[in-house]
Amino acid sequence: MLSRKGKAVKLTVDHTPERKDEKDRIRKSGGFVTWNSLGQPHVNGRLAMTRSIGDFDLKNHGVIAEPETKRITHYSNSILRDIDIIVEICDVINQCHDPKEAAQRIAEQATQYGAEDNSTIIVVPFGAWGKHKSSEVSFSFSRSFVSSGRWA
């Protein structure tokens, strides 16, 4: 997520078996995609994602650990047309005093809105933070394992 002038820009796309490019790689590697009773796709009927550090038994079936990266060197209005804007997250961030508080609040929001898995929030400020433009900028990492039926 990138915050630009108080607006959030989503920078990532989930690695799911629904994506044509991911599904094609799975199939070319001898794997298959099935849908469960809730209509969610899974690799070989087991894994809801197509990229994973673990899941070694599915590596021969197209699951890879390679990250997908994106570099934005010039930020323009044409990029905004191609990327979803998520204003709510920026509203939360803009009310926080520092990146640590912002990360904690975003993790709390994820829990409140029903996140069913663990959440990792990293807030990296580029430049001044809010109204504290003359103060030294610091950053923090916050990791929150969301309480759900899976982790409770």
Description:
There is one protein chain. By secondary structure, this protein is α+β, with helices and mostly antiparallel strands. It has a domain at 2-12 and 77-144. The protein contains four helices and six strands, in the order ββαββαααββ. The protein has helices at residues 20-28, 77-82, 87-94, 99-112, and strands spanning 2-4, 7-9, 33-35, 41-43, 119-123, 140-144. The strands form three sheets. Strands 1-2 form a two-stranded antiparallel ribbon. It has a two-stranded antiparallel ribbon with strand order 3-4. It has a two-stranded antiparallel sheet with strand order 5-6. A hairpin with a 5-residue loop joins β3 (33-35) and β4. α3 (87-94) packs across α4 (99-112). The radius of gyration is 18 Å and the shape is elongated. The two termini are 28 Å apart. The model is unreliable at 78-85 and 132-152 (pLDDT under 50). GO terms for molecular function: protein serine/threonine phosphatase activity. Residues 1-126 form the PPM-type phosphatase domain.
